[in-house]
TrEMBL record:
<comment type="function">
    <text>Catalyzes the conversion of N5-carboxyaminoimidazole ribonucleotide (N5-CAIR) to 4-carboxy-5-aminoimidazole ribonucleotide (CAIR).</text>
</comment>
<comment type="pathway">
    <text>Purine metabolism; IMP biosynthesis via de novo pathway; 5-amino-1-(5-phospho-D-ribosyl)imidazole-4-carboxylate from 5-amino-1-(5-phospho-D-ribosyl)imidazole (N5-CAIR route): step 2/2.</text>
</comment>
<keyword id="KW-0658">Purine biosynthesis</keyword>
<dbReference type="Pfam" id="PF00731">
    <property type="entry name" value="AIRC"/>
</dbReference>
<feature type="domain" description="PurE">
    <location>
        <begin position="4"/>
        <end position="155"/>
    </location>
</feature>
<feature type="binding site">
    <location>
        <position position="15"/>
    </location>
    <ligand>
        <name>substrate</name>
    </ligand>
</feature>
<feature type="binding site">
    <location>
        <position position="42"/>
    </location>
    <ligand>
        <name>substrate</name>
    </ligand>
</feature>
<comment type="similarity">
    <text>Belongs to the AIR carboxylase family. Class I subfamily.</text>
</comment>
<dbReference type="InterPro" id="IPR033747">
    <property type="entry name" value="PurE_ClassI"/>
</dbReference>
<dbReference type="InterPro" id="IPR024694">
    <property type="entry name" value="PurE_prokaryotes"/>
</dbReference>
<keyword id="KW-0413">Isomerase</keyword>
<dbReference type="GO" id="GO:0034023">
    <property type="term" value="F:5-(carboxyamino)imidazole ribonucleotide mutase activity"/>
</dbReference>
<dbReference type="GO" id="GO:0006189">
    <property type="term" value="P:'de novo' IMP biosynthetic process"/>
</dbReference>
<protein>
    <recommendedName>
        <fullName>N5-carboxyaminoimidazole ribonucleotide mutase</fullName>
        <ecNumber>5.4.99.18</ecNumber>
    </recommendedName>
</protein>
<dbReference type="InterPro" id="IPR000031">
    <property type="entry name" value="PurE_dom"/>
</dbReference>
<feature type="binding site">
    <location>
        <position position="12"/>
    </location>
    <ligand>
        <name>substrate</name>
    </ligand>
</feature>
Length: 164
């Protein structure tokens, strides 16, 4: 795959079942990407290095997923001007509400675009990254339009009540 333009990071491999939905979406759209574990509290030096090198390495967006006291997206955003898209992971005890509040409540000045808790948030973060890239890529914009059309047709074909 060519030079990654989207980086997907997560605080733990336990976030993979959620964050793989972002990776799968990027793969479906043939977006050059990379993914790895970067933890704000377990590997803070790696976090700094990742954020500090992101722009020079060609990343246009970073999708960051974390759970609990989810400071990974905010800390990345503090260290790079590459846009950070935050995905709240589903946490064991508070079911991701803690993650959501941790990520969404960034103080003014250092933004993190925050998505829904869990798989929908991960997939939508990827779609949002794709939409930003599509601003300068007509072929990708067409793919995104086709994706929307597929969903439109699926909704139009829905039967009620749903079949078991
Ligand atoms: C966060 O702590 C991770 O993002 C994960 O959601 C949560 C729990 O991590 P593990 O204890 O499962 O490694 O850093």
């Amino acid at each position: 795959m060519s030079q990654p333009v989207v980086g997907v990071v997560m605080g733990s491999n336990s976030d993979w079942p959620v964050m793989c939905k972002a990776v799968e979406m990027l793969e479906a759209f043939d977006i050059p990407h990379e993914y790895q574990v970067v933890s704000a509290h377990r590997t803070p030096d790696l976090l700094f290095e990742y954020a500090e090198t992101a722009q020079d390495r060609g990343l246009k967006t970073i999708i960051a997923g974390a759970g609990g006291a989810a400071h990974l997206p905010g800390m990345l955003a503090a260290k790079t001007i590459v846009p950070v898209l935050g995905v709240p992971a589903v946490s064991k005890y508070l079911k991701g509400v803690d993650s959501l509040h941790s990520i969404v409540q960034m103080p003014k000045g250092i933004p993190v675009a925050t998505f829904a808790i869990g798989e929908a948030g991960a997939a939508n973060a990827a779609l949002f990254a794709i939409a930003m890239l599509a601003n300068n890529d007509p072929a990708l914009a067409k793919k995104l339009q086709d994706f929307r059309e597929t969903q439109r047709q699926a909704a139009l074909n829905m039967k009620l009540p749903p079949e078991a």
